Amino acid sequence: MKLRALEIEQVRKFGGPVRLGEFADGINVLCGPNEFGKSTLLAAIRGVLFERYASKAESVRRMGHARGGSSPRIALTFDTGRGRHRIEKRFLHREPYARLTLPDGHRIEGDHAEEALQALLGFRAAKQGAKPEDAGVWSALWVTQRSSVEQPDWSSEPARTTLQACLEAEIGAVTGGERGQGILREVLDGLALLQDKRGQPKGRLKEVDDLLASADADLLRLADKHRALASDIAELQRCGRMLAHINDADEAAKLDADLANARSRRDAVLRYEDAYRQAEMALRLAEAAHAALAAEAARRGQRRRDLHTARLLAERIAEADAAARTALAAADAEAGTAGATLCAAERAADAASGRLRQARRDAELAAKAGELAAATERLVQAEAAQARVNELSGERASFGADGDGMAAMREAALGLAHARAVLDAQATSVLLDLQPEAQGRVLVDGAPAPSELRAVAEVALDIAGIGRILIRPAIRDRDALLSDIAAAERRLAAALGAIGATDERDAERRHVQRVQCERRLDDARRDLAMHAPGDPARGLAAGAGALRNHVAVLRRQLEHELAERGMPAPPPPTDAEADMRAALAADAEASAALGPARAAVACCRERTDRCAREAARTAAERRTAEAEAGRLQREIAEVTSGESDAALACRETEAARDVLAKRDARALVERARPEDTLAGMDARITRLEQAIGGRRETLQKLQRESAVRQSRIEQEEASGLAEQIAALESRREELARERALLLREVAVLELLRDTLGEAERAAKERYLAPITRRLTPYLQGLFPSASVQCDETFRISGVLRDGAASEDFSRLSDGTQEQIAILSRLAFADMLMEGGRPAMIILDDALAFADRDRMERMFDLLTEAARRVQILVLTCRADVFDRLGGHRLTLEEMAGRDAAPGNGRPALPQLF
Amino acid sequence: MRLLHTSDWQIGKCFAFLGTEGREILRDARLEAISRIGRLARQGGASAVLVAGDVYDVATPSDQTLRQPIERMRAFPDLAWHLIPGNHDPHSAGGPWERLARAGLPDNVRAHLTPEPAPIGDGTAWIIPAPLTRRHAAGDPTQTMDAACTPDGAIRVGLAHGSLRSFGSDGSTTHNLIAPDRAETAGLAYLALGDWHGAQSFGPRSWYSGTPEPDGFDLGGGGGGEVLLVTIDGPRALPAVERHRVGGFLWRREAATLHGVTDIDVLETRLRGLHPDLHRVLVSLKVEGTLSLAGRQTFNQRIAQELRGALRLLRIDDAGLRAEPTAADLAAIDHAGFVRDAAERLSAMAANPAEPRHDLAAAALQRLYSLQFRHEERAP
């Protein structure tokens, strides 16, 4: 389809009839600024085609003129493969109409016109206003404002049918879609019964798996029980054999007899051991009695030897005691002598110390007298310096011309000179060059005439013989200047008065004298400071007054000390110093003598102590030795008084004989010793008793064990273990068979699913091939080597660029999405036209996101596509779209045909 | 004298593959067979029933299983039942025979647990038993029969359980082997044998009675379900043996080659004609041949579904039944579109023997065919 012209009247902002056209083949560009009405023109094209002429739907009312109450009229002329058509509609009119003029000039009116138009362009009748989905392929091919990024929507009828018809015309009938999906769903449903999304068993398959696992566990359990049963049976048989053995009566009787025999032999051993113990005991008693007597005899001998030794020791100790006493007396005498020597030395030292203290006080007194004399001398010089300072201070004050006064005076003098100079600058200068003979004949204000006269006031020039000449200088503000001079003179006079000067020269002279006086004053102050300096360490302030006080204090202290010592005058320093040196020497000598005397006394005391301790020790030892000798003597006397030594010797001989007799008796008993030992017999008895007891215990244990095993065997037998195992194994086989069948079912369904899926993908690829084949060249014009993937709704789902993985379309940039969406429309338009269907492209405010390079490429691609399909571009960006070329559309006013009364005709908006 | 020879009752045998109901029915059927044997013995004039081993299926049956056959035999007090342990229920410590000995047996039931000969009835005949004391005996359990003492003129009847050497033994079996000439060497008038489940004779005097109630498809001999009524007129007279069917269930192994719906019709007719009461028939069916998807659909519907419902058991081995989709099959799936494409892919995979999943592909194709039909049925 190719648009040729559009006429509108009373549509939105357009009142009077205007005409857009003539449209060319290929690219048509309508450039206009914002609010030019481009979207209105596009709405008019949509309206005249898709809105029913009698409709009063909202979408139709929105087409009305902005002022309301209008009835829009729109006419569109277009070409199809059958020739030129013209459709004209008037909406919202009391007599709305639709008129379709066919290529042969025949005109169809009203609903017939609407139906013929629908059949011609392939859209659906709108019931409540035309909606995008009613417009068929046009809605997909025409890009409205703000929708250029979106892909064309082919999902609704009749767009989808139209496109499918084109595809089927190209690739043949495509069937199997819905039925195939149904079958695939059934396969997936079947599969979902047996496995979950992760391929894990589910439903019956999981049940069977669980049952198999349970059966295996049960089989293991039963096998364990079966093994336990077999073990029980074997053990029961073993118990039976052991019971038969234990129940053997002969063996039991033999054990009893052996036990009785062992016990009898053990009694014999016990009897022998008793007799031997008694003989042994008697022998031990006899030996003990003999040993006691022998010991007593030995003790007596030892005691006598001890007495002798004690006596010898006492004698030796008495001698040592006497020697110690002698040494003690000698030490005491020596200590007395040393004490007297020390007393004499101490007295001499005390005397030397007294003399030294006296000498020190004399030296201090002499020093204080010296200090007083020096201070007194400095005080005299300080007071002289203080008097000079006072005198110079008074002299300085008499000059008056201090720095400030001089500065004020100089400033006042300067001001006066300045005032005078100002007046003088305006003074009338009169030069008098008089002949020498004329000197004196000429008087100025009665005085001889100067060579130059600067008149500031009236001046009388008297020339003798000639007359008087009055000179009146004309000075502006002369009075004010004179007043300034008078004020300056007053300030100068005041300044001079302040410093006591008569004039400036006097002031300068006074100032020089004052400066000289200040220098002398500084010298006097330095002298004062030198003679009466401050001494913060002694609390002495600077100045003559402080020094005077200090001298008074020193004098009082000296007088006090002299009075205290009863001295009329302080000693001369030289005498005091000599006394001091003599006292120091005497004191050192006395102190040196004191040390040896003290050492001698200490040494004597130590020796006296040592001798005293030795004497005490020897006295104590002598007493102990004498006591020991006495004790031994008393014991010997006591023992021999009870039993004599001879009687004791007799008793010892008798006891030795008794020992020999007891030893013979023990040997006699030992000869009857039995062969058995008590330990051996005890072990045999224990062993036999344990054997007999063990048989009983074993018997009971075996009986209990047999009963337990028998009970357990019967219990397990009753449950039919082998039967259970056989049943379970059989059940397990059945489950395994079922599992194999279910797994085969899963495998069959998976294969079916996969095969259907692969076939479906291949079918889709074939089905969409015509679209991708047409789109690819466009796309490669933008992205070399790129290709696209479409889904079954004919939308681009992915883009492959530069061999990389497929990029999801929705993840591409807005600009790229928009460009690809426009290119896809070109491709669809190509396909529709090749399929004999009408198609054209409208781009309203598109390519908003393209950069310069992309824009250039897109222009190339649009130009290339425009060789086959008409493209209408509406844009407000004239500068950019200038490079697109194409045919520029113009909007022209038409002569009014059905202009509504009262509707003003605004001037046509300006195109770029 | 007249005896009834039976063996291999294997009471307590479990038939897990039949499900709970079928399992119980077949277990009960084995007990019912005992009653039928008793009634047959009475009718046939036999005074004793010889059970040649394997009364029980396992060595440690439950108490209930242990008592059930005893109580069935107690119900025939006029008959003497002579039992020996077999390889399934050997006389060992803790085994069923020890338990029965502890619990006590009815007077008319005698368990021969040692090889001691014992008189049958009035002593005209003496039974020489060969009880097994372990599942796998290394030697010939009947070896002692040769030297067994019986009164002069007595009819010697051997009762043993095991495989006759060279009689069906494949060489791998080395236990419980019985000398083939045992009847002659031991002077037996008749050797009643157990272990084989199908009735067979080996010579005029040595007979396997087989199990009275079949328990499998490949029992050999008569296929099971029989007992032998034996008439012996004298110590050296040849026994007259009558085979009687007592089994309640028919176990059949069937095979068919299918190439079309007609073959399926024939097979169905044949299987439905096996027994008036198909619920007493168990069939192991092996099918081979080539069927179209439509044919296989028919087979699945009429044989695998409908007939399976009629039979007690239908086990189908269809590994040899190949699917060969026809153009009509594929057209029935779809004329075009991806489902048709998938069908062709599966068909190619199934037809390629080198493809490891060709059998899965055949099954998947068949499934696709049936799903397509189901989908169409559901579609409005």
Can you walk me through this structure?
The complex is a heterodimer of chains A (912) and B (380). With 912 residues, chain A is an alpha+beta fold. Chain A has 19 helices and 21 strands. Chain A has a domain at 2-183 and 763-893: P-loop containing nucleotide triphosphate hydrolases (Rossmann fold), CATH 3.40.50.300. Chain A has helices at residues 38-50, 58-61, 110-121, 137-141, 159-171, 177-194, 203-246, 249-399, 403-425, 478-498, 504-531, 544-565, 573-642, 645-670, 678-719, 721-782, 814-834, 852-865, 878-881; strands at 2-9, 18-21, 27-31, 73-80, 83-90, 97-101, 107-109, 142-143, 428-431, 442-444, 447-448, 452-455, 459-463, 467-471, 787-790, 796-800, 807-808, 841-844, 871-875, 887-888, 890-893. In chain A, helix 8 (249-399) runs antiparallel to helix 13 (573-642). The model of chain A is unreliable at 898-907 (pLDDT under 50). Chain B folds into two domains: 2-245, Purple Acid Phosphatase, chain A, domain 2 (4-Layer Sandwich); 250-378, no CATH class. In chain B, the strands form four sheets. A six-stranded mixed sheet of chain B has the order 4-3-2-1-13-14, with helices on one face. A six-stranded mixed sheet of chain B has the order 5-6-7-10-12-11, with no helix packed on it. Chain B has a three-stranded parallel sheet with strand order 15-16-17. In chain B, strand 16 (281-291), helix 6 (293-310) and strand 17 (313-323) form a beta-alpha-beta unit. In chain B, helix 7 (327-333) crosses helix 9. The mean pLDDT of chain B is 90. At the A-B interface, helix 6, helix 7, helix 15 and helix 16 of A face helix 2, helix 8 and helix 9 of B.
Which regions of chain A have little confidence, pLDDT < 50, spanning 5+ residues? 898-907
What is the CATH C-level name of the largest domain in chain B?
Answer: Alpha Beta
CATH topology assignment of one domain in chain A: Rossmann fold
- How many domains of chain B, as an integer? 2
CATH topology of the largest domain in chain B: Purple Acid Phosphatase, chain A, domain 2
Q: Taking strands numbered 1, 2, ... along the chain, how are they ordered across the largest sheet of chain B?
A: 4-3-2-1-13-14
What's the CATH H-level homologous superfamily of the largest domain in chain B? Answer: Metallo-dependent phosphatases
Strand order of the largest sheet of chain A: 7-6-5-4-1-2-21
* Main sheet: strands, sense, barrel of chain A: 7 strands, antiparallel
Instruction: Classify the helix fraction of chain A into a percent range.
Output: 55-70%
- Which bin fits the share of residues in helices of chain B? 25-40%
Q: Give the H and E element order of chain B.
A: EHEHEHEEEEEEHEEEEEEHEHEHHH
Indicate the radius of gyration of chain A in whole angstroms. 79 Å
CATH architecture of the largest domain in chain B: 4-Layer Sandwich
Overall pLDDT metric of chain A:
85
Shape of chain A: flat
From the spread of the alpha carbons, the general shape of chain B counts as elongated
- Biggest sheet of chain B: strands, sense, closure? 6 strands, mixed
Please, how many helices of chain B?
9
Number of contiguous helices of chain A:
19
Structural class of chain B: alpha/beta
